[in-house]
Amino acid sequence: MKNADKGPRDEQKKKRASAVASDLPAYRNEKLSFEERAKDLVSRMSVEECAGQMLVNAPAVDRLGIKSFNWWNEALHGVARSGLATVFPQAIGLAAAFDAELTRKIADVISTEGRAKFNSYQKFGDHDIYKGLTFWSPNINIFRDPRWGRGHETFGEDPYLTARLGEEFVYGIQGDHPRYLKAAACAKHYAVHSGPEAFRHEFDAIASPKDIWETYLPAFETLAVKAKVAGFMGAYNRTNGEPCCGSKTLLVDILRKKWGFRGYVTSDCWAIKDFHMFHKVTSNAIESVSLAIKNGCDLNCGNLYGHIMEAYNEGALTEEDIRTAAINLMTIQMRLGFYDQNVPFDSISYDVVDSADHRAFNYDVSAKSLVLLKNRGKTLPLSARKLRTIAVIGPNADSHGALKGNYHGTAGQWHTILEGVVDAFPKARVLYSEGCHIYKDKVQNLGMIRDRDAEVLQLIEMSDVVVLAVGLDEFLEGEEGDAGNAYASGDKKDLLLPSPQRHLITLACDKANELKKPIVLVNVSGSSIDLLDGNDKADAIVQAFYPGAEGGRAVANLLRGTYSPSGRLPVTFYSNDNTIPEFTDYSMENRTYRFFREKPLYPFGFGLSYTSFEYDSPKLSGKKVGVGQGLGVRVKVTNAGKMDGDEIVQVYVRVTDADVRVPNFQLCGFKRVALAPGETKQVEFQIDPASLQVVLDDGRRVAHAGTFELYVGGAQPDARSEELTGAAVKNVTFQVQ
Predict the structure, then answer these.
(1) Most buried residue among 193, 584, 591, 669 by CB atoms closer than 10 A?
(2) pLDDT attached to residue 21
């Protein structure tokens, strides 16, 4: 009888379930697509409620179960500005690791901590700024000019490296769940944006179609088309006359139509008011709001979208304009799981934030980001057994600011270079002097100019080796309004360190050289620096960028030789007297390694190791390639030294017979390879067809039939790299037919 009763009871359950489902609003129906649900939700909102959702601090709509939400959050190299987080090396340091897989893992840790913090904030009803899941990272602008203060937020000067690392960063942030976003990444600042900071609110970046499509847009295209990034942020400036946050060319014709982007677009903060206040392309707030929204800027970081209803009531905006933007925004919230039950990321708890595992991983990242630029006479590694006294000198030796970079969180513990040296050399006495102020002419306000000189000379006399930690910090190079060097609005006027540090370098190097004591210079900066006397007089030079919370330990262990350095420069280091163009000139002529015609100080892609690597001749999948096809490359790499080491295998390509300007050569592949002494590995690459194309003067990217040179090695194939490494890069010729 029980079995006989089962059928009718099941039918009754189905009917009840069906009745419940029919009462469920479509936006709550998890069987529908997110876009369908967002459209249903927006259809239930008034126009004014839709307009409210276009504000960065979107208000709650209680009757529909919409919570208040602040869209502004940052995650450039860790969850930023909301307390405890794992603070990784600044983005430029992540780029120096030249490791796409590592970048994805870093972003995955960031999004894990982001979800944990979000879950905690939601539990306590905290919906404040920097506490949501829409991260306005990565910054994939091209670091075209070494004076730009925000360049250290980027992945460097190369479009290919930027695109690959940006793509992997997005994958790590957004996760691989088939349905939900772990967090929402945002590609910024779109587009043709890299200073000057002082003029960014009024500046018109004039760029040729060739430069736009050859240099400035490829990374954005990769993130839109391949990585499916959730968001785009417009830049402050105009590009060829159009304000980026209201540009039909950029936002409609290219982003939405050409690339098929279906996410949300936000303005940079307070950028919409620049339309009428500084760019003078509109006359008032209503015109500015209308221009931005009609061209696809869904969200306003700032307060100008408070005028949306005025624009609507005056007929400058339609209801469809407003509802379309609201749908784009609510679709992102849907994809984040805000209206669903049992979202898989809801169980991530706060105890993962800055956990022991994340700290250990962060140390590994820091170690891989450091670049050894010079090592005369194998000064490094230092012997922990032989050294009795070490002088650690310099304004960045015991500075937390030197570790951070901008847009950072709060580490549970910061490890400075001084602390790292103390721990790495436990048998040695470590003497410390600040040496000088980071930019002022004295350390003590009541002291005389250069009030630490005598102490510096005394410490050098007492020590077996000198570690000199100099450079900049987020207050000397950064964003307009944030950085402390108001005289340059965050940018650099030249490629030199502040004068007190230049004096310190000369003083310390001359004294150490006189006493025949080794001196190791550690430069902490996010950009190209000409160290002047340090270039020649220091025995070893380490470029540390902003190495994160574990940075001091990583630097000290590199000095000790716990591991072999493996980082590579993601930007060209120029001499201060190189004739790079004016900062305001957005032409790529004589800029970056791809077009630079002079001898650099240290080239893009360069970095030394404690071991040595040998390459056989690269083998191609064919010496003749059809137009529009890719190319297979394989090469054997051997660790010919006596120490474990990672090699960064780099592949460059050059067109030899084009009728238009083409790069000197350009990166088209890179891989990090770990090798034990004597070990050989075969490394394989698949060169994308896009790398075998040329960009015409009108901006069209076309396949090129002709002769190409392909180079494989541990550096770029320029004369300066060969001079510094003592080895020529292997090359092979092939034809595209």
Answers:
(1) 193
(2) 52
Nearest to 120 by CA among 133, 135, 107: 133
In sequence order, what E strands does 71-155 have? none
pLDDT class of 628 with cuts at 50, 70, 90: confident
pLDDT at position 3:
46
305: tokens are: 């979208």
Spatial separation of the C-alpha atoms in residues 667 and 211, rounded to whole Å: 17
- Euclidean distance between CA atoms 364 and 73, whole angstroms: 26
Residue 16 confidence (pLDDT): 46
Question: Which residues fall within 8 angstroms of residue 443, CB to CB, at 6 or more apart?
Answer: 434, 436, 437, 451, 452
CA distances from 384 to 78, 387, 389, 428 (A): 33, 6, 10, 8
Helix (H, G, I), strand (E, B) or coil at 458: helix
3-class DSSP state of 147: coil
Instruction: Quick: pLDDT tens for 707-721.
Output: 999 999 999 999 999
SS3 620: strand
Q: Which residues contact 718 (CB under 8 A, 6 or more apart)?
A: 593, 603, 664
What type of residue is 484? G
Residues 653 and 587 in one domain: no
For helices 551-560 and 417-424, what crossing angle results, to 10°?
A: 40
Q: How many domains does the chain have?
A: 2
* Residue that has been written with the tokens 């695109």 in this structure: 163
The span from the CA of 515 to the CA of 509, in Å, is: 10
Query: Same domain, yes or no, for 566 and 483?
Result: yes
Band (pLDDT 50/70/90 cuts) for residue 14 is: low
In b/e form, how buried is each residue of 356-382, taking b as 16+ CB within 10 angstroms? eebbebbbebbbbbbbbbbbeeebbbb
Give the Cβ contact number of residue 282 at 10 Å: 21
Query: What is the gyration radius of the CA atoms in the chain, in angstroms?
Result: 27
Tokens of 47: 């126009």
Whether residue 467 lies inside any domain: the answer is yes
CA distance 166 to 39: 30
Query: What domain range includes position 425?
Result: 356-595
CA angle 449, 451, 454 (to 5 degrees): 130
Count other Cβ atoms within 10 Å, centred on residue 473. 25
Instruction: Quote the pLDDT of residue 393.
Output: 99
Q: What share of the chain is helix, strand, coil (3-state, %, to 5)?
A: 35, 20, 45
- For the entire predicted model, the pTM comes to 0.96
* C-alpha to C-alpha distance for 103 and 137, rounded to whole angstroms: 13
**CATH code of the domain containing 661:** 2.60.40.10
pLDDT band at 541 (very low <50, low <70, confident <90, very high): very high
Q: With the CA atoms of 476, 477, 483 and 486 taken in that order, what torsion angle do they form, in degrees rounded to the nearest 10? A: 70
CATH number of the domain to which 528 belongs: 3.40.50.1700
Do residues 413 and 558 share a domain? yes
- Which are the catalytic amino acids? 268
Task: For 393-450, write each residue's pLDDT tens digit.
Answer: 999 999 999 999 999 999 999 999 999 999 999 999 999 999 999 999 999 999 999 9
Q: Say if strands 186-190 and 231-234 run parallel, antiparallel, or are unpaired.
A: parallel
Give domain status of residue 25, yes or no.
no
Helices (H) and strands (E) in the chain, counts: 21, 25
Domain identity same for 591 and 618: no
Per residue in 460-511, pLDDT tens? 999 999 999 999 999 999 999 888 888 889 999 999 999 999 999 999 999 9
20 confidence band (pLDDT: 50, 70, 90) = very low
Predicted local confidence at residue 373, as pLDDT: 98
Q: In sequence order, which ranges of 336-464 are alpha helices (DSSP H)?
A: 356-369, 401-404, 417-424, 453-462
- Put residue 180 in one of left, alpha, beta given phi > 0 → left and psi -120 to 50 → alpha: beta
Name the E strands within 4-127: 57-58, 69-70
